[in-house]
Design a protein that fits this description.
The protein is an alpha/beta fold. Bound molecules: glutamine (GLN) and zinc ion. Zinc ion (ZN) binds next to loops. It comes from Dyadobacter endophyticus. Its cofactor is Zn(2+). InterPro entries: Cbl-indep_Met_Synth_N (IPR013215), Cobalamin-indep_Met_synthase (IPR006276), Met_Synth_C/arc (IPR002629), UROD/MetE-like_sf (IPR038071). Catalyzes the transfer of a methyl group from 5-methyltetrahydrofolate to homocysteine resulting in methionine formation.
Length: 769
């Protein structure tokens, strides 16, 4: 049985590409040195896949920065503002590429980067293609041909991977009014066809066209675009074998379109859309055709060992209907979203052999795919690989490390009333007004202060054992007290302790909760050279003891002003981790929510009167299909409410969100019922507030008055203007004054100057009303 892979991680097993890219941008290595690193990674990836026995190995899945940007360059969709960089010299191609990715400030030019957004519902971000009304396409980059040739020279006939033309258009944006980007298909296709022809001429037998757009809600025109694209491609290339892949969800109403495509093979993601398999196997037109079916049985987006029994059942069901020759075995999606290699995890004290035995990273997943292809045609009851796999699965299913009856019982005993505060917001607001005695337009910040090298050093030294606990904590306390004095001097109303003790807003909590484990090298590309190392939630989550109370209580004891407690919300902790696949996401989130709830109650007991629970990732969790939004939003909002509702009315609960549009989820944001929400709005000039205004959002709200992503210090006037704009749509008594987000990436001088101006703006505004 044929096995294949959809794509392999490309940053290098030790993030070599990240480092080389950053050196190239800093000017410390040249183009050739960068390309050499890139080439080495490609070669290693191909070898790894060859050694694992993968039959069809992908090429062009590599990218220096982003594969959607690569596609824009392939078809010459280069926005006008970059044309000044196109002077035909070949050495400039990289300059242009990185200018589109990161912006360009050199030689008197100042060109901004392309917009970046999330790749489906993953944490990978791509550069959004930009289209204009009279968009012209032309072949520009031959990367796909070069990489095919490169592998060919090593004796590997790869399966080139291209982002399919329809999904490419769907993922882009119209930059002017008066046209629909889907209508660009007919002018885009000749580019694809010319490249496919050349690939075929050079010896490519299979090509993979990724069309995950088929798991979106599509209108009729978009559906027809798929049919039109693939019949034109088929007509131009009758012999080339074309594999169309779908992933990240079931096909649902798009199944008929997918089946009708005149291609040689169709790939399904069974880890996120298993229901499509029985549907396709009873479809006469598919079954009676000669098309192959690729089964994505090994999860490309998570780190759990595959359950061979379950996968083989799927494979055997398909083989029974289609026969062995028509079935391929594969990961569910590209392995881009998995860390490289479990064998790099050597620290047994952290990742114990028991837990490690439940995991598989990209390299291990390749072996799972080829083993499954081998086992598919055998009686595997005595096969050692099969037996070892089932033993690991059984160990995970029953491990006392994972399963804590008390935690499960507590979740099952959650009652409706646990989601509700004592009284409705209007009553709480009156009580808080009296107890907290905050002025009109209270000011605050979002939590973190600059993480200077010194602060990072402190944590690193402590981790290494170079500082004792006592020395470390003394230094952190000094930082906190300094920042409190400084906030008081500035005149901020609700202070923060600064989060100096935290490396990362999820990791900090994960390290203190049971059921989490951390890797040393489990990096996954987030965008460009940025990689993240998500914690792994493997077991039932429980809080052994208070996590933040010591620091918050210390800070409150050192100031006569209110100091805000600072927590990360359950949905964000879930969303930024690798999650369990052995229970619904909702259950894991509720377990985390109960742990946070206990922390909130303990903070209240310790005298903290204002507590913020950050939920920047609520929107990221939205399902790809609209009909599934309601269910998700219900439990996500419930999880937040569960974490927040254990306190008395006089305790003020804040939440914070950034990078969000709120229009289509505003009712859910309101249902979270935080007393105060702070949001990012300054870059949209308060436009994001409109959703709150139209909804008559009842609770208090702090629309960020300045962008913390830039070192630029905003003027007092600018911020007053934004606040006045906000006052047009929010009642004065509900308006807070704060920056867009936490300040950890900023430096102190600009932070101080910006906050000083922000406080002046708040004061002037108070005087004017
Ligand atoms: N409290 C966090 C901070 O200030 C919030 C970060 C975020 O919203 N991403 O750093
Ligand atoms: Zn934020």
């Amino acid at each position: 049985m044929l096995s294949h892979n959809l794509g392999y991680p490309r940053v290098g097993s030790l993030r070599e590409l990240k480092k080389a890219n950053e050196q190239f941008w800093a000017g410390t290595i040249d183009r050739d040195a960068l390309q050499k690193v890139a080439r080495k990674i490609r070669h290693q990836n191909w070898e790894t896949q060859q050694n694992a026995g993968i039959s069809l190995i992908p090429s062009n899945d590599f990218s220096l920065y982003d594969h959607v940007l690569d596609t824009s360059l392939m078809v010459g969709a280069i926005p006008g503002r970059y044309h000044q960089l196109l002077d035909g010299k070949s050495n400039k191609e990289l300059d242009l590429y990185f200018a589109m990715a990161r912006g360009y400030q050199k030689n008197g030019l100042d060109i901004n980067a392309m917009e970046m957004t999330k790749w489906f519902d993953t944490n990978y971000h791509y550069l959004v293609p930009e289209f204009v009304k009279d968009q012209k396409f032309k072949r520009y980059s031959d990367k796909v041909l070069l990489e095919f040739e490169d592998a060919l020279q090593k004796g590997i006939v790869t399966k080139p991977v291209l982002l399919g033309p329809v999904t490419y258009l769907l993922l882009g944006k119209e930059k002017e009014a008066g046209f629909d980007r889907i209508d660009l298909l007919d002018s885009l296709l000749p580019i694809y066809i010319s490249i496919l022809k050349e690939l075929s001429a050079r010896g490519a037998e299979w090509v993979q066209l990724d069309e995950p757009g088929l798991v979106f809600d599509l209108n009729e025109k978009e559906k027809l675009a798929f049919l039109s694209a693939y019949s034109q491609i088929r007509e131009a290339l009758p012999k080339l074998r074309i594999l169309v892949t779908t992933y990240f969800g079931p096909l649902e109403d798009n199944l008929g379109i997918a089946i009708a495509l005149p291609v040689d093979a169709l790939h399904l993601d069974l880890t996120r859309g298993a229901e499509t398999l029985p549907q396709i196997l009873v479809d006469d037109s598919f079954v009676s055709s000669t098309k192959k079916l690729s089964l994505g049985v090994v999860d490309g987006r998570n780190i759990w060992k595959n359950d061979y029994r379950k996968s083989l059942e799927w494979i055997k069901t398909a083989v029974n209907v289609l026969g062995e020759d028509r079935v391929l075995v594969a990961p569910s999606s590209s392995l881009l979203h998995s860390p490289y290699d479990l064998e790099l995890e050597k620290n047994e004290a952290v990742l114990t052999p028991e837990i490690k035995n439940w995991l598989a990273f990209a390299k291990q997943k390749l072996h799972e795919v080829t083993t499954l292809a081998r086992l598919a045609t055998l009686d595997c009851s005595n096969d050692s690989a099969f037996l070892a796999n089932q033993k690991a699965i059984e160990s995970r299913r029953t491990s006392a490390l994972i399963h804590k009856p008390a935690v499960k019982a507590r979740v099952s005993e959650v009652r409706e009333s646990d989601f509700d505060r004592q009284n409705a917001f209007a009553i709480r607001q009156a009580i808080q007004l009296e107890k907290l005695k905050l002025p009109l337009f209270p000011s605050t910040t979002i939590g973190s202060f600059p993480q200077t090298d010194e602060v990072r050093q402190l944590r690193a030294q402590f981790k290494k054992g170079a500082l004792t606990l006592n020395e470390y904590e003394t230094r952190i306390r000094e930082e906190i007290v300094d920042s409190l004095r400084w906030q008081e001097e500035l005149g901020i109303d609700v202070l923060v302790h600064g989060e100096f003790e935290r490396n990362d807003m999820v990791e900090y909590f994960g390290e203190q909760l049971s059921g989490f484990v951390f890797t040393q090298n489990g990096w996954v590309q987030s965008y460009g050279s940025r990689c993240v190392k998500p914690p792994i939630i493997y077991g039932d989550v429980e809080r052994a003891e208070p996590m933040t109370v010591k620091w918050s209580a210390f800070a409150q004891a050192n100031s006569a002003k209110l100091v805000k407690g600072m927590l990360t919300g359950p949905v964000t902790i879930l969303q930024w981790s690798f999650v369990r696949d052995d229970q619904p996401r909702k259950d894991t989130t509720f377990q985390i929510a109960l742990a946070i709830r206990d922390e909130v109650i303990d903070l209240e007991k310790a005298g903290i009167k204002v507590i913020q629970i950050d939920e920047p990732a609520i929107r990221e969790g939205l399902p790809l299909r609209k009909h599934a939004w309601k269910t998700y939003l219900k439990w996500a909002v419930d999880a937040f409410r569960l974490s927040a509702a254990g306190v008395a009315d006089q305790t003020q609960i804040h939440t914070h969100m950034c990078y969000s549009e709120f229009n289509d989820i505003i009712d859910s944001i309101a249902a979270m019922d935080a007393d105060v929400i702070t949001i990012e709005t300054s870059r949209s000039q308060m436009e994001l507030l409109d959703a709150f205004a139209q909804f008559n959002y009842p609770n208090e709200i702090g629309p960020g008055v300045y962008d913390i992503h830039s070192p630029r210090v905003p003027t007092v006037d600018e911020m007053i203007l934004l606040l006045e704009k906000a006052l047009k749509v929010i009642p004065a008594r509900n308006l807070w004054v704060n920056p867009d987000c936490g300040l950890k990436t900023r430096k102190w001088p600009e932070t101080e100057a910006a906050l000083r101006n922000m406080i002046s703006a708040a004061n002037l505004l108070r005087e004017s009303v």
